[in-house]
Amino acid sequence: MAVNSSSNKLDNDTLLMLQDVNTSIIISVVYMIVTAINLAGNGLSMWLLLFRTSPKTPSIIFMINLTLTDLALGIALPFQVSYQLQGYHWTLGPGWCRFLTLVFYTNMYCSILTMMAISIDRYLGIVRPMSFRQSTKRKSIAFVSCFLMWGLVLSVLYPLMTTDLTYHVPELGITTCFDVLKKDMLPSTLAWAAFLLTMVFVLFLFPFCVTTFCYVNVIRKLASDSKTAQKEKAIRLAFVVLLVFTLCFAPNNILLFVHSVLRLFWGQSVYTAYKLSLCLSCLNSCLDPFIYYFASRDFRQKLRAIMNLQSMSSADSVKLEQKESMYSTHLVPEGQSTERSL
């Protein structure tokens, strides 16, 4: 977003960005592709997770939460495409602008926090099995964690819920949505700094560090054990999650921080690069079904059955399930339980 005083005209860099047709078309095409893949992949994932996958383990609960945010993004993106193709002209009013902007950023940060929760669940199940016992409390903790994630994200993004995010640009005869923010949206430069630092460090950097720590230790633990099909899938899961963080979330949050600091203190801008990085952040909604595939054996089996990829007999299926369950004998001492959804 280009932070601007409500009483001043836009600078030339911002005006040029709003007239950059090529960038607008690129972003629109990416959003259309993401929307199609998002709705198809996550629609199928939601159906499998809700109606075809049981029991509802903590990992499954987190995946349902993640799928919900992804579907919300898929529904919101067509409005963004229309806005881009109309030359950054918003015609649906301030209320819809606030709502769709909130959906966009809630998806990003709820996805980050949910993936952190899944990584902690994997870490406890594989690296710390002594602390990982089957109980009804684990499901309750998962439900409460999801509500806390939403509460944290919405509280941080509260200024976006209470501000008119549209901005009329008389020089171009258009009304933007979130691309130009009034500087008086927050009371002071210190408030802006707190807002941006919380988004970048609390909602991105801290979860990224926790997720990296968990999966690095999961990989190290599994690498020290004998080869199993489970080990390979868990390592693939770790790489997919870390790929989503580094490819989808890191560029956007880094550029958000850099752009905002440059804009607030030096009047400079890297907003075009930031707009392009938003495309990368949306790709997470297309990659999340791969996380489900590697994280849940039940999800894999149901998906294979639907896609007619499961050509084995019942006896072969039992043998495969026994093979994938061997990790529990390698990682968990006798008498202790572990997560079977991996």
Automatic annotation (TrEMBL):
Annotated localization: Cell membrane
Residue ranges constituting the G-protein coupled receptors family 1 profile domain according to the UniProt record: 41-292
Membrane topology: Multi-pass membrane protein
Pfam families attached to this UniProt entry: 7tm_1 (PF00001)
Keywords: Cell membrane, G-protein coupled receptor, Glycoprotein, Membrane, Receptor, Transducer, Transmembrane, Transmembrane helix
Phylogenetic lineage: Eukaryota, Metazoa, Chordata, Craniata, Vertebrata
Family: Belongs to the G-protein coupled receptor 1 family.
Database matches in InterPro entries: GPCR_Rhodpsn, GPCR_Rhodpsn_7TM
GO CC terms in record: plasma membrane
GO BP: phospholipase C-activating G protein-coupled receptor signaling pathway; positive regulation of Rho protein signal transduction
PANTHER family membership: G-PROTEIN COUPLED RECEPTOR, P2Y PURINOCEPTOR 8
Name the UniProt record assigns to this protein: G-protein coupled receptors family 1 profile domain-containing protein
Principal localisation: membrane
Highest rank taxon of the organism: Eukaryota
GO molecular function, one term: G protein-coupled receptor activity
Transmembrane segments: 25-48, 60-79, 99-120, 141-161, 190-216, 237-262, 274-295
